[in-house]
Amino acid sequence: MPRVKVWDLPLRIFHWALVIAIAVAFLSSEEDSALNQWHVLAGWVAAVLIVFRVVWGFVGGEHSRFMDFVHFSRIADHVSGLFRGRTDATIGHNPLGAVSVLILLALTAMTVWTGAFGGESSENLHEVVGWTLLAMVGFHIAAVVVMSLLQRENLVRAMISGSKPAIRHPGAQDARPPSTVGMLIALLVVTGTVYGILQYDQQAFTLRTAESFEHRAGTMGDAHGQQREDEHEE
């Protein structure tokens, strides 16, 4: 059966890598977890992935770009159509799917930020945001399953293969691939992000307990506070 290309390879790698990073982060979040040493590493990997996705939303393939699928004005009509039983297949993200993508990116970024830079004072917030992210992931999975059934189209397979059945999208053409310049920009930004993370935490991409990172963050916070006090006294 003929198929039409939709999702570029970098986007698909990002998607499944983020799935793994979030899963590992949650499974390793408890102190007595056998995966506890993976928690900080998973968080930093998620940070790099989020930065990549933001950049890719401007320089990626056709349906990876925010301007292609973020259209808030279409949400009401899309929801209304669902209530009327109209489930027209969309070649890229549908309006609700676009909102889901933005919320998931924002919640993942907030989870990473509160865990990496919030210190002990943000532990409760980190946990609340993390559980909110997990709930949103569950909602996203349920929505993908439901829409796959309603539209008679395997959306999970599409995110694996990068293509959708042409018969379900008459007149659709293969998505424009990312440009070489776009890929270079993304590579430079990701490289710079990794470098910046390593400047902040030299052990960012090594295995260690989450508690050792929390202790380090607390020590850095005390040191910065003392530095500010010394500067004020001077």
Give an account of the 3D structure.
The chain is an all-alpha fold. It has one domain (3-233): Fumarate Reductase Cytochrome B subunit, CATH 1.20.950. The protein has helices at 9-27, 39-59, 66-69, 75-83, 95-117, 123-151, 155-161, 180-200, 210-233; strands spanning 3-5, 163-165. The chain has a two-stranded antiparallel ribbon with strand order 1-2. Helix 2 (39-59) packs across helix 5 and helix 2 (39-59) packs antiparallel against helix 8. The longest helix is centred in the middle third of the chain and has 29 residues, at 123-151. Mean pLDDT is 89; it is low at 221-231.
Brief write-up:
This protein is mostly helical.
Task: Please describe the structure with a list of short key phrases separated by commas or semicolons.
2 strands; mainly alpha; Fumarate Reductase Cytochrome B subunit; two-stranded antiparallel sheet; 234 residues; 9 helices; globular
Q: In percent terms, what proportion of residues is strand? A: under 5%
Largest sheet: 2 strands, antiparallel
Average pLDDT figure: 89
Low-confidence stretches: 221-231
**Total DSSP helices:** 9
Cα-based radius of gyration, to the nearest Å: 21 Å
- How far apart lie the N and C ends? 75 Å
CATH class: Mainly Alpha
Report the CATH architecture.
Answer: Up-down Bundle
Number of strand elements: 2
As for the CATH topology, it is: Fumarate Reductase Cytochrome B subunit
Count of distinct structural domains? 1
**Structural class by sheet pairing and helices:** mainly alpha
Strand order in space, largest sheet: 1-2
Shape: globular
Helix content: 55-70%
Topology order in helix (H) and strand (E) letters: EHHHHHHHEHH
